[in-house]
Amino acid sequence: MSEFLPYGRQSVSDEDIAAVTEVLRGDWLTTGPAVTRFESDLAEHTGGVPAVAVTSGTAALHVAYAAAGVGNGDEVVTSPLTFVATAAAAALHGAKIVFADTEPDTGNLDPAAARAAVTKRTRVVAAVDYAGHPAELDALRDVADEAGALLLEDAAHSIGSTWRGKPVGTLADLTTFSFFATKNLTTAEGGAVVSPSARLLDRARAFRNHGLVRDRDSQRHPDEGGWHQEVHAFGLNYRLPDVLCALGSSQLRRLSAFKRRRAELHARYDAGLKDVADVLTPMRRAEADPMWHLYPLRVLGGRRKALYDHLRGQGIGVQVNYIPAYWHPVFADLGYRRGLCPNAETYYSQELSLPLFADLTDSDADRVIDAVRSFFGV
C-alpha cells in the first residue's frame, strides 16, 4: 500500500526552524518582542487592522466574545456548519446560541436566515468562512447593523482570502483566526483577534492577560507601589509565547505562496472530478478570492460514507467537516433538535474533505482523483 496521505499537514521550512531557534537562544520565551512583531506582521495581511495574538483559534473566539461583552441573556446568531468552538466559546460566556441555516452551495451562513434569527437580544452575528470561502460579509453587516449587534467573522479557514477585493480582517467588527498545524499557516497552536475598534482591542488584550490593569491612570489604587496591578474584570491567560510567534512571522512570509499552491491543487481537483456525475465540486462566488483551507467534495446518492471508507482503505486521509454543531450531545441536552437547519444538515451528509495542503504534490492529488474516479467507475 502507498504511504498514508493526510488530509492536512503543516509546511515547515529551514527559515521557520531558524526563526524559532533564534528565540530559543534569546532572553524571551513567553511575552516579548516576537509577539509584538507577529501582531504587526499579521496586520500587514489584514488591511492594516491591528491584531491580538492568542493561544488558539478557540481562545480567539472566547476572547472576541468577551471583547463584545457577550454574557447572560445575550444571543449569538451563528452557523451550525463549523467546528463546535464557534458556538461553544459564546455559550461559555452565558449566551444563548441561535443557529441559522447555511447557503446550500457554499456552506456559509445565509444572510436571509440570519436576518430571520436575530432578535432584540442578539449581541453578535458570527459568520464562518467555510473551507476558506468568505461569507457574504456585506449582507451580514446589514443584518448585524439592523439588529444593533456586532459582526464577528470566524476566519479560522480564511486568512489571505478577500471578499469584493477587501482582505479578511477588514470586513467585520471582530475577526478571529486559527494557526493550528493544518491551517493555512501555523504557529503549532495559536490564533488571533483583529478589530478596527480600539475599544474592542483593549478589551481583547485585557481578557487575554487575566484582565490585569497596569496603567496607573486606570487603577483604583495607583499609589500601592511600582509593582501594583489590578483586575477589574475577569480574564484568562491566553498569551501566545514568543517562540510560537516567531514561527508565525516566518510563516507569514510564505502566505502568498501557500495561497497560490492551494489554489493550484484546488483547480486540479476541479478538473479531475468535474465529469464525475455523482459528486459536486466546491462553489466559488465571483466576489470571493478564497485562500482554500479545505476541498469540500460533496458526494451524492447517500454514498459519502462508502467513499470515505474506500479512500481511507487506500491510505488517503479524507475527513468530514463538520457535524452540525447542535447535533453534539451538549447542545442536544439543551433542547436543540435535528432538523433545525436543513441546508446545513444536507451539506454535512454529503461533505468529504479531500487532502489539501501546500506541500501536497501533483502526483498526490492525482492519486486522490484516481481513487475517487475508480470508486465511481469512471
From TrEMBL:
CDD domains, alphabetized: AHBA_syn
- Which is one GO molecular function term here? transaminase activity
Q: Name one GO biological process term.
A: polysaccharide biosynthetic process
Entry keyword set:
Pyridoxal phosphate
Q: Which InterPro entries did the record assign?
A: DegT/StrS_aminotransferase, PyrdxlP-dep_Trfase, PyrdxlP-dep_Trfase_major, PyrdxlP-dep_Trfase_small
Which domain of life does this protein belong to?
Bacteria
Task: Enumerate the active-site residues.
Answer: 183
Residues the record lists as N6-(pyridoxal phosphate)lysine modifications: 183
Cofactor field: pyridoxal 5'-phosphate
Q: Which Gene3D superfamilies match?
A: Aspartate Aminotransferase, domain 1, Type I PLP-dependent aspartate aminotransferase-like (Major domain)
UniProt similarity note? Belongs to the DegT/DnrJ/EryC1 family.
Name this polypeptide is given: Putative PLP-dependent enzyme possibly involved in cell wall biogenesis
